[in-house]
Amino acid sequence: MPVPVSSLPPVLQARLSGRDLIVFDEVCVLCSGFFRFMLRRDRQRHFSFATAQSPLGQALYAALDLPLTEFETNLVVVDGQIHQRLDAFSAAMRRLGGPWALAGLLRFLPGVMKDPAYHLIARNRYRLFGRTETCLVPGPEVRSRFLPGGFGG
């Protein structure tokens, strides 16, 4: 179930400034791969980005009572709603539109199916996909897509 951005503390609401946002674990190969996938395909520049390790990412995870070191979900904010787990992926794909919007149908899977599958992958993502040994160092154009305080940990 998405959480409305309006339920966040006012300072966080202001930092999001009404933008669609993807918050991802920058050391997870799978998660950073999702970031790169979205960056390449988001030609309309719908999304801004933040890493989970950044000050903004940490503030969002804390406000949502999520772990601050073991990131078992990306966060995707679309139209003022914060999505987690498979629903986050689904919301991002719907926002991209075109053929990617078909992946948005995953939101209709019952929670008893999608949540255990998502958690199984999330808990084992480093073992299955690996961790990056170096920090993400984006160039100026990519860096401009990050919200203030959304980069660096």
Please give a structural write-up:
By secondary structure, the protein is of the alpha+beta class. It is 42% helix and 13% strand. It is built from six helices and five strands. Strands 1-5-4-2-3 form a five-stranded mixed sheet. Helix 2 links the parallel strand 2 and strand 3. The two termini are 28 Å apart. The mean pLDDT is 86.
Indicate the structural class.
alpha+beta
Give the topology string: H per helix, E per strand. EHEHEHEEHHH
Count of discrete alpha- or pi-helical segments spanning 4 or more residues = 6
- Let me know the average pLDDT: 86
**Can you tell me the overall shape?**
globular
Q: Mind telling me the C-alpha Rg?
A: 14 Å
How much beta, percentage-wise? 5-15%
Largest sheet: 5 strands, mixed
Quaternary structure annotation: single chain
Query: Would you report the number of β strands?
Result: 5
Order of strands in the sheet with the most strands? 1-5-4-2-3
Q: What is the end-to-end distance?
A: 28 Å
Return residue spans where pLDDT drops below 50 for at least 5 consecutive residues.
none
Indicate the percent of residues in helices: 40-55%
